[in-house]
Fold Oligopeptide/dipeptide ABC transporter ATP-binding protein.
Amino acid sequence: MSTPLLELHDLDVEIPLADGTLHAVRGVSLTAYAGQAVGLVGESGSGKSLTLRAAMDLLPVPAKITGGSVVVAGQDVTAMKPAQRRAVVSSQMAMIFQDALTALNPTMRIGDQVAEVPRQRLGMSASAARARALDLLDQVGIRDPEQRYRAFPHELSGGMRQRICIAIALSAEPGLILADEPTTALDVTIQAQVLGVLDGLRQEGVGLVLVTHDLAVVSSTCSELNVMYGGRVVEHGSTDVLLSAPRHPYTAALLRSVPDPDEPVHRLLTIPGAPPDLLQPITGCAFAPRCPAVVERCATERPPLMDVSAATAAGHTSACWRAEEPERWPGSIGEAALGVAEELRVVEERVHR
Ligand SMILES: Nc1ncnc2c1ncn2[C@@H]1O[C@H](COP(=O)(O)OP(=O)(O)OP(=O)(O)O)[C@@H](O)[C@H]1O
């Protein structure tokens, strides 16, 4: 296989705060290739954004990488000097965010914003950069790009603005796009259009790492999933397998919390209990206090990511002591794990309607 565009090895991110150190990302490993979409899912606060930001060298002050490494297109950038690291990272990767409005410059015409990198970083002439920007606007599905070129961000809809952000990200010709909840602020139809743009790019060979809390979004876009909880990846594998045969109770619980489009009143969207306090050391499995399948060992010994592929499919790993016996998990998470296809059907219906 080709060199991965991004590898995270055992990455730790910590944030020193007045009341202690918040250990937000705890030993995360992840690999992304050209032409592949990898999803990072989990509840709010599980460390998804900081993982992406650490990869992109965009951690908010005072957050810091305190362990592990970031390897970009085969080069370990972790110990590089900041200017060199930024040069390598920005030559290979670009990031898009949830809030397209704040990501754009309100006082600058959108075409000029798209032309900025080709002009300044790639050294194109003004007219070549303008032509490139028009191409990019066309590529992300902006109709009538000549006319739109002169618009300001506030004159465009949310979906259009997110397309502009994608065009800006593409303007540096990255191999990999890191997308942090790119469709969360959009309504369902526009969300599907923006995901369609990202999927089109993937088919043209761009790699994608997509952060979302929405399983319907990843099920339609990503071939591989990493499920995060309490700063760790607790399950990894192909999307189809994780959605039909999850081997971590947290993934199963997430599936259970997907709203059913056939029900007039949606099921409760939350998993009972609260995520762990990341300021405190976590003994055992972080999900144990909320886990319906918890056993004594879970409270004292932290389960590493273990290979569970024998029962499901290649590359499937789970950090659960009870991953091999889902038939003994109680109630609804047991049903989800045994692939009562209901869960997958609900997720897929939401995406395809
Ligand atoms: N700048 C910051 N200062 C203090 N704490 C932070 C900061 N950024 C993130 N955190 C904390 O780090 C943890 C992980 O945050 P992160 O944003 O990575 O989670 P997430 O999974 O992306 O959640 P969300 O979907 O809400 O963005 C959370 O507990 C969050 O409160």
Remarks:
- The pocket of adenosine-5'-triphosphate is lined by residues 15, 22, 24, 42, 44-50, 60, 63, 213, 278 (CB under 6 Å).
- The chain has a mean pLDDT of 89.
- DSSP finds 14 helices and twelve strands in the chain.
